[in-house]
Amino acid sequence: MNLTKKALGLTLAASVGFAAITFADDPGVSSKKSLESRIQELEAKLKDLGGNTGGGVKGSGIKISGFVDTSYVVNLGDTDNFGPIAGGAGDRAGGGAAPPNAGRVFDSQFDSFNLNAVKLTIQKDKDTSKFPAGFRLDTIFGEDARVIKGGSNIGGSTADDSEFAIEQAYINLGVPIGNGIDVKFGKMVTLLGFEVLESPANWQFSRSDAFRLAPMTQTGATFGYQWNDMFTTTVGLINGWDSTTSGSGTAGGGGGVFGSGNRNLNPGFVGRVDVSGPKTSVGDFNAFVAGFYANDVKVPTASTTAAGIAALATSNDEATHIWNIGGTWNKPFEVEQMTWGVDYLYRNDEQPVTPAPLAHGEVDASAFSSYAKWDWNKYLTSSARLSYSWYNNNILRNATGAPVSANSLSPLVVSATNASFNPAESDLFSLTLTQAFNVWKDTLLRLEWRHDWTDAANIGFGVGSAVANSRDDIRQEQDTIAVNVVYSF
Question: Based on the domain organization, do 377 and 286 belong to the same domain?
């Protein structure tokens, strides 16, 4: 029984109890009514409050669910010159180096216990009428909420488990045309990606680099249509990029796009095709192809200078486009315990190039991940992920080789004080092994080891001494171990 049910139950119990005392003092009410019958009445009323799978209020169609996601993450590197949380922490004093757990989306805090997320979902599925309607609201509390809102836990952000974010809030409508058009209007999770925002729904605790390169949420309207048992298409008109964490920057002081993208002036476009293959003797397949195109458009603020407004006029002409393809192969060659997965994402960002009169440049990135999962039994599941990402981060160099203008999609820190350290191209690799235990009811326990490494000598995962920008001092590898415990209700 969830907390909402308990609260309702206690309230009802108190009300019934008060009524019983009042009626007992009333000479117009029979005093012969047994205590047993009153208890039976109370039990019947409490039963009417619940009974729907997933919680909620019986008869209303409203369902309540969620989870509590906690972890402890250890970085095995030299963390002596880093602070894990506040006060310039997460980054070495003096700057110039990435913090441990660099390149992560959510699990960036190291050597500490973390309240990642407390999720609460309230939803009502579409009914069976001719014009059905429903809604869904997903809220998240905890350290992950900062990232979802458009901030970052990377590079010195304070971990704050009191953060709050609205992950989704949309109205779901059905249009009776053909097989039925599924319309969602409001804020939703993105259509892109093999991995999803909710950690317990993924095979691994940590997210891949492809997840970091894609938007998390979108605000607008989507239209889905299931053509048959195999093909489903979804298209959407949305506000644009959801945050500047890995977006096109904040040129001109225009500010970022937080969550719903309400600072965007131009619409963006998103689409996805899902294919469910038939079950065969060699297994069954599920695949998707998705695309995204939008400007990271910003508007001037009261403090934006004239030069900043001019810069915005240039940067607002630039766009981000993403292509994503992936899928799963279940029970390959009739091996019941095995599932394979694959994900490839390409992203291209147009960027402003300075100084004038240079116009535009581009940075792009690709990320490929392969997955494998083995279900030993209903209690134990082992999984692995191998990822490779490559970046073209340089926009333009002058005759001496120094960067005229440089931007980076790479999550790793680039030294700005030494031109020879600026990477034109860089690669990032990671291997993740995860063991999941489903022993306790409604509880997922995962142990995860992840190894990251890069072939670029000019970026890395932090330094081990106080010497800034020292090539010999930059760590090119990173190992972390995580314990993740999730309770779902």
Answer: yes
